[in-house]
Amino acid sequence: MDAQKTDTPDKGRTILPLIVLFAVLWTIVVAASLAWNTHKAEEEVMNLARKEALAMYNKDMGFRLWGTRHGGVYVPISDHTPPSPYLAHIPERDIETPSGKKLTLMNPAYMVRQLMDNYNELYGTRGHITGLVLLRPENAPDTWESKTLKSFIEDGVKEVSELTEIDGEPFLRLMRPMIMTKGCEKCHGHLGFREGDIRGGVSVAIPMKSYLQHQAAQNQVLYATHGSVWLIGLFLIGFGGRKIHTGLQETLNAEQEVRKLNHDLEQRVAERTKELKEKEERLRMTVENAADGIIVIDETGIIDTFNESAQHIFGYTPDEVIGADIAMLMPDNEGKKHDGYVSNLLKTGRSTVLGVGREVTAKRKNGDLFPLHLAVSQTHMEDRILFSAICRDLTHEKKIAQELLQAKKEAEQANHAKSEFLSSMSHELRTPLNSIIGFSQLLNLGNNEPLSAGQSDKVKQIHNAGQHLLSLINDILDLSRIETQGFSLSLEPIDVKKAIQDCLTLITPQAQKRKIRICDNITSKDLPLAFADFVRFKQVLMNLLSNALKYNVKGGQITLSAEINGPYIKLSVADTGAGIAQSQLDQVFLPFNRLGHENGDIEGTGIGLSITKKLIETMNGQITVESVLNQGSTFSIEIPVCISVEDSENGIQVLPILPAGSWRILYIDDNESNCSLLNDTFSHYDMVEFISAHTGEEGINLAYEELPDIILMDLNLPGMDGFSSLHVLKNDDVTCDIPVIALSANRAKNQRQLALQAGFQSYIAKPFDIDDLLTTIATILSRQIRP
At what angle do helices 453-483 and 395-445 cross, to 10 degrees? Predict the structure, then answer.
């Protein structure tokens, strides 16, 4: 038995090398991922620069070819364009027009050289025509060009590109040989060149500074991302290892149990390692397949271009598709739609698909159908019309979306479990706290057996500690309820001044004890009603006033002020305390972050401001802070005001407030009376533009053209019903993110559930209550501006 006890710690310590090993393995995995990603980023930058260089080269060669075909051009003689001494052997190098204007011949090389100089001045790109046999000394090759020209002649190389420095700046240089063709003998034949000879080369140099800066920015993001993942992994490994180590120390009472626990540990490690490898492989495949496919067709639908990414997406080789009809890449119904789009465009010049990304169904070589993101643009080339399509396979993205949805559900379940745990712990802690606080109060009363001064002081400390712990428990429970939406709000018109007066009644005695003056500039003002929860609004005010009191200096001042800020009432609470450094202002509303506690013995949980921020935002408001060190802080809240409407029968009515901003609301209903009702309702809101449609088809077109912020849709529409219309909207990239509220006179129990499952944001039964409808709209719109 003694030998077993002695051996147990040694076995426990064997866990430490495993923790170190996993940390090393994790570090290697993260480092490998970082190296691979930075390498891919560098490749991408170089490919982009090379494409720019090729575009510049092709432009120069196209211009040169044009000049060659025309035998050069005559231009007026000037200081910038003097006669070329190297064309003196041409009899008609210089001519004079009948009007007396003197012209000189510019051969293609002269033209391209001048064009290159202009591009260098404008954009920093450089170009150079050079060769080993020259007429013009200025065309002499530099060291890099000489080496490249020799590789053209001696090794038959067709192109050379390389990252080098010119005048101390990074450039991507690209060079291709110039071959003698018909039309070149006029200017270069006397140098001994014949058709087909390599007589030199054309080089272009693209400035790489901006590319390298972009690459550096990408690398910084990669370093930060991988560093965060690495640290999280190390924390998880260390935390898990410590738990295993502790478990072994407590439970290893026999050799058989030790072997069992070691076996379980090895199995978990193997599973975790496998998961990491699988995730790394999925990540690698996602990055490799991120490049978009490019397909170009003519106006008849014949495929002209089919790039490598498109080959990977559809499974065809270029030989199989170029010259074929684009319909081979679509299901039959999509092919007919495409023909209709093209026909309508050629007839009317208008199209709803050009320049807009959308999701379509495509067909692979093996016949499989898959979702594809497609963006089409139109190009005119002489007498031809070409359509370029950029496409991306959405199969993987759809799968990822499902995984994210599952992860969200799991997170919500975990959050609910946390709230249940906090509620249970609150009950368990409150019971002994009741005894601690109660008996400490009884001891201080102690009329029969008075306590000594020292005993009384200690009992007060016990009582204060109990009260502080009770406050902490209450704050944590409040924060948990807010985060999990475990509480309800009663939004209604409230009197702001009444709420402030109630709070001042509670806070003034405490301020007087510390000789802090409260300057009230609010209750004397004429303020409109606000739209909020009265109890929660007072909780927000009390939190701000309590903080202003706690963090103030003795004999200081608290100033309350108010102003109307558009559709909001802005209330400010300013103190004369120590203030907060600018670098710490972004931490003020973080939970358990007690900024300023180091300046004195100030009690608090560090949760109050976090609760305040979440409460005010839940009521469609916002909170801000301004502070100056050694001068004080000012916390300001903005809460929506109510809109008052005159009614001849009911006097003044109050409508719910909509969030600040400009909103466009689309209502789709075939009932004219309902449209008129909502039009009159929204006429009271200056920030709302109300539009309506009477059919699903008309509503979809309006949604596509007007892009409303929210859609109200009747489910029982003529023709295309509400469910079918929603399906069309959600499957179009332009309208898929617009929230839609379902309206229906069908009060069947499952109607609401069917609507929410279909993708409607909310469901309201007819006849609807205007206040309920407006409150629902306000809640949904507020999510778009304050997530």
Answer: 160
**Which residues touch 773 (CB under 8 Å, ≥6 apart)?**
712, 764
Output the furthest CA–CA distance in the chain (Å, rounded): 133
pLDDT number for residue 626: 94
Q: In this structure, what are the phi and psi dihedrals at residue 481, rounded to the nearest 5 degrees? A: -65, -40
Give residue-wise pLDDT tens across range 721-749. Answer: 888 899 889 888 788 889 999 998 876 66
Q: Which amino acid is at 394?
A: L
154 exposed, middle or buried (CB, 10 Å; 0-12, 13-18, 19+)?
Answer: exposed
Paired tokens of 22: 């996993």
Return the structure tokens found at 711.
């859609």
Q: Which residues pair with 96 in a beta bridge?
A: 102
Token look-up 């039959």 returns 332
- Determine contact, residues 83/77, Cβ cutoff 8 Å: yes
Residue with tokens 């991120």: 290
- Output the CA torsion sign for 208, 212, 215, 221: negative
pLDDT in tens, 180-197: 776 666 666 666 677 767
Strands 102-106 vs 126-130: parallel, antiparallel or unpaired: unpaired
- Local confidence band at 347 (pLDDT 50, 70, 90 cut-offs): low
- pLDDT tens digits for range 426-444: 656 666 767 777 777 777 7
44, 65, 64, 60: which is closest to 205 by C-alpha?
60
pTM across the whole model: 0.41
Assign a CATH topology to domain 492-643: Heat Shock Protein 90 (3.30.565)
Burial zone of 718 (CB within 10 Å; 0-12 exposed, 13-18 middle, 19+ buried): exposed
Domain locations in the chain as residue ranges: 293-393, 403-483, 492-643, 660-785
Spatial separation of the C-alpha atoms in residues 633 and 625, rounded to whole Å: 7
Superfamily of 293-393 according to CATH: PAS domain (3.30.450.20)
